[in-house]
């Protein structure tokens, strides 16, 4: 039906940068919003950033000024540019895709981001 695949995670030192990608494919009629979540071991999943088709974006307070979410609508892809990374950013990052005319959201398998010296 709909597949969501994240990529771009890895190991980075504090202060470094990573760019995550999330590509949606399959039976897509229209995407209403895409978002990035993250979950660290022993912690609840938290919303990191959202991007609506109209261009509006939102960020968690913890990442404002450091992360930027963007989209390539032609590719049904959303990106998360992460700068000035901190150890507390270490988590499994998930992509969420919300479709117009759909009763459910779609999720990727996650991509691991580890920030460590």
Sum this structure up briefly:
This protein has no helices and eleven strands. It is an all-beta fold and 117 residues long.
Q: What report would you give on this structure?
A:
- The protein has 117 residues and is mostly beta strands.
- The strands form two sheets. Strands 2, 4, 5, 6, 9, 10 and 11 form a seven-stranded mixed sheet that branches. Strands 1-3-8-7 form a four-stranded antiparallel sheet, with no helix packed on it.
- Helices cover 0% and strands 56% of the residues.
- The model has no long low-confidence stretch (mean pLDDT 95).
- Strand 9 and strand 10 (105-107) form a beta hairpin.
